[in-house]
Amino acid sequence: MVYLDNAATTMIKPATVGREILRTMSMCASPGRGGHRPAMNAARTVYTCRERAAELFHVADPDRVVFTMNATHGLNIAIRSLAGAGKRVLVSGYEHNSVTRPLKQLGAEIMVAEAPLFDREKTLDAFREKIPEAELVVCTQVSNVFGFVLPVEEIAALCREAGVPLIVDASQSAGILEVDFEKLGADFIAMPGHKGLFGPQGTGILLCAGTGDPLLAGGSGSDSLAQQMPEYLPDRMEAGTHNVPGIAGLMAGMEYVMEKGTDAIAEHEQALLALMIARLQEMPEIELFAGAPGSQSGVLSFRPVQRDVDDLAQYLAERDICLRSGLHCAPFAHRSAGTLETGTLRASFSPFTTESDVIKCCRCIEEFLQRDG
After folding, report:
1. d(CA 136, CA 133)
2. Helix (H, G, I), strand (E, B), or coil: what is residue 167?
3. Is the pTM of this model over 0.90?
């Protein structure tokens, strides 16, 4: 199998992830639900994972690391804490539905910092122009469709200068690029566990500058007499029983990232990106969406000029080559790039992707293009 759908889920994971999940299932109960050994094993596992995340993302207090089910869960907490009906919220033109749908559901007034694909300067100009009108900014660090690396650090500086709160979606950057909570000064940063952090599905992290408003209410293992959620983190945001095996797997995934280093991971993915761009550029029937070096992560979108993207995706799937076609839950990004009517086919890499994976995929694309109609 050739797996090139890591922007959806890094299915191929370090062996330690599975081992930690299985070990935890046999040794851990629920944290905060007793003083017996299995409960204390769970509490230590959960807190150690918070410490790993705090170290990786430069968070001074591990209690500001909140565990979620995924990035969408975290973004909903963040957005519902800071947005509301009629509130003017500025977003980039490359946001995922996990940002735009909650805003729409709340009745917020969505403003878009429109800019051409891969143009960091015009993106920054668009934010600079509109931030003074905004009451909240929500911005992805990397487009899940095109791998466009937005100038989030500069946008964060503009927000701090204007006194406008900021939520960062690090779904495609955490574990691959630097995500520095302290440096960005964002109010919230949300990320999934199952992508660049190599955790299992059903895990995620929300980094919190303030307490915010809980999305769920229920048992927290603390302050059981009170009928409101605790005022302090992380208990305020973590109602119900933790996914302890998932958190253990996430911890193992983050430890792999920390051992390998995000610079090395990014360098590997950039080499594969360059290889695939070079191969596909030899096929005039393919339209590529590739930026200048440094403007794009290890995600590449393209489309056949005369064929349907879904047909090509199916052809590859039948040969056990895994890519994703369509709109990728991000119509704003496709509208910005002019691909809304057709969608794109997306290849995305990980440290476990090899050059031979990319070469085999490109050969099959060429075979597809050479077929009649």
Report:
1. 9
2. strand
3. yes
